[in-house]
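Archive maintenance. Older records in this collection stored only the sequence; we are now back-filling the structure field for every entry so that each record is complete. The fields below show one back-filled record exactly as it appears after the update. Entries are processed alphabetically, and C69 family peptidase is next in the queue.

ARCHIVE ENTRY
Title: C69 family peptidase
Organism field: Sphingopyxis fribergensis
Length field: 447
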Amino acid sequence: MLTVSEALDRAQMLCDAAAKAGADAADALYYCNAATSVSMRLGALEDVERSEGQDISLRVFVGQRSASVSTADMDAGELTKLVERCVAMAREAPEDPYSGLAPEELLFKGPVPDFDLDDGSEADPAALRSAALAVEEAARAVAGVTNSEGGSASHSRTRFALATSHGFAGGYGSSGHSLSASVIAGEGASMQRDYGWHSAHHLTDLESTADIGARAGTRAVARLNPGKAPNGKLPVVLDPRVSGGIVGHLLGAIAGPAIARGTSFLLGKEDQMLFDSSIVIRDEPHRPRGLRSRAFDGEGLPTAARNLVEGGKITGWLLDTASAKQLGLTPTGHASRGGGASGVGASNLHLAAGSVTPEALMKDIVDGVYITELIGHGVNPVTGDYSRGASGFLIKDGALAGPIAEFTIAGNLIDMFAALIPASDLEFRHGTNAPTLRIDGMTVASS
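Back-filled structure field:
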């Protein structure tokens, strides 16, 4: 694995070589991840895996034509061939009036701030084995757990570097730690499975093996002997482990490329009251130790905190350079990059907590459903129509009344946004976080 400084040197070398080969502009992105994971099952070692992958991608522009290539080979000779091949490809590509690097005057400038994403740790296979064993044992200790799919622990290190031919160079590194357990409760055809997991940049921020394991076991046992869900238009309450998906659907709908293509159900609705006026959905790219924190986006533009929803309305689109050009707007610092053209993405997203507890949120529900798992991807990004398989618990007279499974919930995201009520139990555990959410009037149908 290259250091951030070495990766930046390699990326800058590619940009310089592209200019010498006839490119008008270029950028190069380096990404590397090294990970070690250990899995235990039924108290015995099941798997030890070590992986390290690196990739450097070059994107060049010749006039309004562009091409991208990538390689895992860091040999200087191979990289020279890569540059020549990429420039030759660009000369033959069709013209794209919206292609090009981000505006030079908008680039991030100055030193990259430290968001404390790296705890300086190295992988310790013995410690990972102990943690994987402990998290599985904690899950298996829950009364009613009968089998295990295993416990796992992992450590990773990541390096990211981006350089452009018009003056940007920046990079950063991070560490990662994760724990998970998956167990089975019951016997025969009545078996139920569930899991618990957590990840963090710093080992000291990682939830304990006892808590993760106990949660996995307790959840599996709670799902035993599920009944049927009621049918009709009912209040639906989403557990925090699935409620963040609502924020994800909003993100896809306000992404600049979808708006430019005319394929978003929110197109033309930017001035409408879509949510209750108290709802806030916020992007915070500079949060210390945030799982998606970053000082600059995939094109070298600075990032900044922003409310994506406030006062009941969306505050605008998330734009990379290409979609901004198509829409006659300015890029917003939300470009995401893989190997080729940029896309759009946010960083640390959350839907702000409400003022009532989850218990109070459900108190007046006579008949409803509480969702702990969603299945499938039945969301139409053009119309906003939503239909997902689900499992969870019946809500009866304001309290959870028993597990239910094999049913669907359906609606339209516009209606769901308008009906959304958050509870007060927001926790920052993932890249996208939301509290318990209540949405009245969804269609529930059991199979």
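Update note: The chain is about 25% helix and 35% strand. The chain has two domains: 4-221, 226-447.
Entry marked complete.
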